[in-house]
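Is iron/sulfur cluster placement plausible here? Inputs below.
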Amino acid sequence: MPEFFINGQPVHAEPGQTVLQAALAAGHYIPYFCWHPNLSVAGNCRMCIVDVEDGKGGTWSDIACNMPVDEGMKVLTETESVQKRRKETLQLILLNHPVDCGICDKAGECMLQDQHYDYHGERPVSFEPKVTATKFHSLSERIVIDNERCICCSRCTRFTAEVSKSNSLAIQFRADHSLVRASEDGAFERDAYSDNVIDICPVGALLSKDFLYRSRVWYLKPTPSVCPGCERGCAVNIWHRKPEWKLNALDPRRNASIDRVTPLENPAVNGPWICNKGRDLAKILERPRAEQALLKGKPAELAAAIAQARDLVAAAKRPVALVSSWGSNEELAAFKATLGGRFASFVKADWAPLPGEVVEDDVLIKPDKNPNRRAAQGLFGAAPIAFPEGTDLVLVWGEGFAFSGLPRGAKVIFLNSYLQPENGHADVFLPISVQTERSGHYTNFEGTVSAFRACFARKPTVVDAEALFAALATRERAAA
Ligand code: SF4
Ligand code: SF4
Ligand code: SF4
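Reply from A.M.:
I modeled the complex. C-alpha cells:
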C-alpha cells in the first residue's frame, strides 16, 4: 500500500489509485468536474490540478485525476499557484456560461455554483458578449439540454459509452461551438438508463422534462426507498415537498406526491445507477387510489368491512390466499404468523412486464417485475396457484390476478391499493396502503434486504396490510 503526502500529511493509497481517488478517500478535497468515480478518466476540465514537489526545491503541476500515486510523492493542493490555476479554469468555464441560476433546475446542487463560491467568486473577465447556443434542445422524450450551460465535461457521453452502452451521445464541433447531441438512430431515446446523465451532469445542462421547473430542490427532501419495478430492488431516494415548505395556494396534492426519484448509491444492489422505470415510480405508485372499503361493490365503513372479512375467514372451511409479491417482509411475516395456518397460500405475481418494457439486460434490469417474490416464496413456497376442490373463500392480496380464474361460488376478500374494476366484484374489498405510506423491507433476487421508509400519511379510510392481518385473525370485533 503506497504511502505519499498531501500538504505534508501522510496518506495511504490503495494499489492503482490516482492522487484524486486517494486524496478524496483520505478526506482531502480536490475540486473536479469531469472526473466521476464510476467512469473512465477524461481529464478535460483541468479543475483538479495540483502541484507536486520535484525533489529539487521546485514543483510541477498536473491533474490529480490522471496522476498515479507514487511512493513518497509530495502533493500540494492549496498553494498559491494551484489556487490561481483553479481560478483561471473557472474563468474559462464561466466565459460563456449564462449563470442563469435563478431559473436553473440544478441550482442548489450544482458543482459549478459551489466551486465558483469556493474558488473564484469574481465577475467575468470578458466584456465581449457571451457566445450563445441552443437553450432547449430536446435529446429525447425525457431529456432536454441547455447547451449554454454545458461545460463539455463529457460525463454524459462516457456514461452512454461505458455504462448503458447505447453510445448515443457525443460532442459535435469544437471549442465554444461544441454541442452535446444524440445520435440520429434514436439510441438515446431507447436507452433505459438515460436519466442517469441528468444526475451526473455537474451543471444544469441536462434536464428532466418531467421535473423541469417543478420545484427548487431546497424545498424538497429525500426519503430512502426501494424501487419495486423489478426484483433488483434498486435503492432510491424519493423526493417530496418538505412540510415546512408546504404549498398553500397551489394544488395541495403536490404536498404529498413524488416530485422526482434519484438513485441512492448501494454497491451491493445498484451501484450509483437506476433505470428510467425507477425514475417513473409516480406512474406506478400514484395511479388513482382506492380509498373506500366496499361490501359487494357498495361503499362501507372500513371497520364494518373488516368485521365482515373476519367473519368470512372464521366461517370458511377451505380458504385459499393469493399472497402478494409486492408485500414487504414485515407484511409477509405478519400474514404467515396470523393467517398462515388458516389458509392454503400461494404466491402470485402482481406485475408482469409491460408492452415495450425492457425485460432484462446485463446492467440492472431483471425479468421478474415484482420486488419481493423471493421473500414471499421463502415463506409460502413456489407452487403454482391451484384451488383445491371445495375452496369456499379466496383472499386475493394485491393486483395481477384475473378474477375469471376464481373458483365458482367461493367468497372473495380483495386487498388492493388502486381503483380497479375487480374491487367491486369482491364480497369484501379493503383498500390498503402503498409503499410510500409505510415503512418496511424487500429482499431482492440475490437475498439482499433493503429498507424503504414512509413519505406520506395514509388516509384514515385505508388500512396497512400488516395490521389488517392481525385484525382478520381474531373473532373479536375490535376496530382495526
Ligand atoms: S448550471 Fe449551475 S452555475 Fe450554471 S446556471 Fe445552473 S445552477 Fe447556475
Ligand atoms: S451536458 Fe453535462 S455531462 Fe454532458 S458534457 Fe455537458 S456538462 Fe458534461
Ligand atoms: S432496475 Fe429494476 S429495481 Fe432498479 S430502477 Fe429499474 S425497475 Fe427499479
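Short version: Residues 3-94 form a domain with the Ubiquitin-like (UB roll) fold (CATH 3.10.20.740).
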